[in-house]
Amino acid sequence: MIDTNKSQEGQPPLPMQGIPQPTRDEVLKLPRVHISSHPVMAHKMTALRDNNTTPPDFYRLVKEIGALLAYEATENLALDTSTIETPLQATTGYRLAGGIGVTPILRAGLGLAEGFREVISDAQVWHLGLRRDERTLRALEYYNRLPHQIDLQVCYAVDPMLATGGSAIDALNILKRRNIPRLCYVGIIAAPYGLLKLTQAHPDVDIYIAALDESLNDYGYIVPGLGDAGDRQFGTF
Ligand code: URA
């Protein structure tokens, strides 16, 4: 367990030490932020946060929560209409207009992307490798499989933990260079600090999350949070 309050003498300050953070109430009014209020989500979130949940169950829950978030985050997608034949007669049918892209920020975003694919099986998956420099908390790009041919109506950047917002901001900067008509961010838990930073950097992006937590500790972990979402999915403790 990380002790959030201890500052070590003679050591450089911890990444979030002494940095003011907004409260939940301050960010709850932000436009474009959608926080799930579904009871099934709350139920699954409790199991996800539980320290006794094993990596296989944790990964399964991330996928299930990803599917629920995908359902919520696709509420406004555009549709094309066409006439189809049922066994009985002709009727109007609806299909999602244009392609749907999902960009998992590696590696913690992988489970969420799988959940998305259970809802939209033909979603394109664009992997993006960003990792946090634990000292500065800045995001470093180490892998990029974004295609050159782009025909999407929307792309969802997915990463479970919106902590300082650094990776999410960088991922959206990278995606914006691809001229995708609409971008969204989907995460499981956000800290008020990261939510505010992301909204300030990308005010045009809709943000869908399952829960808004209290704050970041001095190390940049979300509290109460769930610990390290990558390690808990892949069993690398
Ligand atoms: N990344 C995580 O996996 N957990 C946190 O609490 C913050 C960032």
From TrEMBL:
Reaction(s) catalysed (UniProt annotation): UMP + diphosphate = 5-phospho-alpha-D-ribose 1-diphosphate + uracil
Molecular function via GO: GTP binding; uracil phosphoribosyltransferase activity
Cellular component terms per the entry's GO annotation: cytoplasm
Domain Phosphoribosyltransferase intervals: 36-236
Any GO BP: UMP salvage
Bias-annotated ranges (Polar residues): 1-10
Classification via Pfam families: UPRTase
EC code(s) of this entry: 2.4.2.9
Assigned protein family: Belongs to the UPRTase family.
Top-level EC class: transferase
Species the sequence originates in: Reticulibacter mediterranei
Keywords assigned: Allosteric enzyme, Glycosyltransferase, GTP-binding, Nucleotide-binding, Transferase
NCBIfam families the record matches: PRK00129.1, upp
Region (Disordered): 1-22
Gene: upp
InterPro entries attached to this UniProt entry: PRTase-like, PRTase_dom, UPRT, UPRTase/APRTase
Necessary cofactors: Mg(2+)
Name of this protein: Uracil phosphoribosyltransferase
Pathway: Pyrimidine metabolism; UMP biosynthesis via salvage pathway; UMP from uracil: step 1/1
Functional description taken from the UniProt entry: Catalyzes the conversion of uracil and 5-phospho-alpha-D-ribose 1-diphosphate (PRPP) to UMP and diphosphate.
